Structure formats: structure tokens, C-alpha cells
Amino acid sequence: MPKFAFASVAAAAFALAGLFGLVSAGEPRLESSVVFQAGQGGYESYRIPCLVATAKGTLLAFCEARRGTKSDWGSIDLLLRRSTDQGTTWSAPRKIAEVAGPHRKNPLALARNLAEDDEVTYNNPLAIVDGLTGSIHFLFCLEYMRAFHQRSDDDGQTFSAPVEITPAFEAFTKHYDWKVLATGPGHGIQLTGGRLLAPVWLSTGTGGHAHRPSVVATIFSDDRGHTWQAGQIAAQDGQPLVNPSESMAVELADGRVLLNMRSESPVHRRAFAISPNGAAGWSRPAFDQQLLEPICMASLCRLSLPTVEGKAAFCLPIRIIWIGPTEARRRAEDGIARI
Description:
Blueprint: E1 4-5, H1 9-17, E2 34-36, E3 45-53, E4 59-66, E5 76-83, E6 94-95, H2 107-111, E7 122-129, E8 136-142, E9 146-152, E10 163-164, H3 166-170, E11 180-183, E12 186-187, E13 189-190, E14 196-203, E15 214-221, E16 229-230, E17 247-251, E18 257-261, E19 269-275, E20 286-292, E21 299-302, E22 320-325, E23 337-338
Parallel strand pairs: 7-12
Antiparallel strand pairs: 1-2, 3-4, 4-5, 5-6, 7-8, 8-9, 9-10, 11-14, 13-14, 14-15, 15-16, 17-18, 18-19, 19-20, 21-22, 22-23
């Protein structure tokens, strides 16, 4: 991939921000902006994007910045850029995650010769905008074995020091003996009732790239991000899914929560499961035959919700936007995203 551009993700940005200048009565107009360029800024590649719009309409773009290697286990920083003009211009990139050392490498990565002991891996950025307070909650992982939370109360200009939330994941060990954890990646959501919800995936690390086999679950906060709790496992490795992992959540019009999941299943279709509250009571995972899956990240967000009067917010139909590939198999060259 020669560059990392938010060409397709920008389409979701106006939905999150309510930037209706991008939408006219005629055909929707999509504009692209190259936010992180591979080979620039001292990094070989930029992967794992996360894009949210704050309550003030500011766009916050996060990503993994990988030095010298494209490996998931190499030296990786997490970067942030801000845009206050709907993505036309962006602030200079800056590191967003800094955890005091010493840093211990995940033993699985060393045992499998996936990394060097002195390489520090920050991974899987995930952001949630609290529409009730305007705060931005930022979750990330360190060495795929520790998770942290940061908060911004000034529209993403500054963030609090990282607070470790790995204990929330320890509750999963009663059901799944994970050795690898990952948030998101991408954006989490806030439910109508105020709950902050973040999709996560876990792995025992015994399979390929120490990321397989895997399961999907959620963690949530009911106190504005001060504490986080584990939900139930939503999807496991095994029929009908193979290694479910990177997921996106959306609140449905009736308040239920849908998880849209990546998996390595041979049918090459996105999987989904539904919960009444985003934490427990998940339906049996099934495949969405309309959404193709070449085994990669995709995005999902709510465009509009019903108002109190029962009409769709923003005078638009009640819609959900999904952004993903147009083909069921990976391509060597740049692919095309479908909305």
C-alpha cells in the first residue's frame, strides 16, 4: 500500500461529526485527504486507522506508525493529527501514547522470533467521543498484553496520562485463557444511555503470528471512563467462524447493539452478532451475505437516529454506514472501498 489515506473513511467522518456541508440534495460528494504518507516522518508504514469527530466537529485521526518493518510486533508508535476544517488541513503528527518504562516484550513474540527484545509495540488505537460531556476517550494496547485509557477534555488538544485498564480483561480468563489482547481497532461508541463501549479481540497466541486462534468481546464503562468492565465473549473460533477479530459496533434504532466482525472464515463474508446492551446476551454469530470479507479491517457507524418525536435525526432516513472492500479476496494492488 503506497499511502495511507482516509479516502473512504472520510465518508464516515461527516456522519460522525454532523458535517452536513459535505451532503447536498443531490448525489453525495466524497472528498479524500492523505493524512499519513508511508515512508515519511521516519516511519516505513502507517496502519490501523482510527477516525472520530468531536462534539465541536474537530476530526481526530489516529494510527499505528511502524518503524523499519510492517510487522505487528515491531517498533510501533501511535500518532494523532487534528483537523478543524473538515479534513482540509491537519495539524502536525504527534505521539499520543507514552507509558513509562521499563517495557517488557510479550513473551509470545520473542518465543516465535516475531520481534527483538528492545522493540516497543504500541498497538490498536480506539477512540470514543462522549456526546454528553464532549470528552474523548482513547484506548490503546502495549505489547498486545496491556491496555490503557486516556481522556481529553479540550477537544483532543491534550490527553491525560495513561491509566492501565488491563484488569478489566482479566475477567475474560475465566472463559478464555488469553495471552494477546487488542482493542478495536477504530472507533468505539457511546450508547443512548451513556454507556461507553469498545469492541476487543483476544487470542491464546498459539497459532499464526501469535494472533490466532481468537475471540471477540467488548469492554464497557458506565461511569464516563473511570472504570471499565468486561462484557461476555460475543464470537469464538469454531463453526461458523474462523478466528474472529477486528470488530466495529453500532447501536440499532431499537437500542440493541450490533457487532460487525472480521473473520478468516472461508465464506469470505463479514460476521455479525447482536446484544440487547452491547455487553451480554449475544446472538449466535452469522454471516451478512451482502458484506464481503477479504480478511481485513472495515468500518461501521451510525448516520442518523430517531428523534424523540420519532423522526430521523438531521432530517435523514435512519441509516448505518458500512465501509469495506468491494472484493472477497485480497489484491496485491490498492483495492476499492464500498460504502
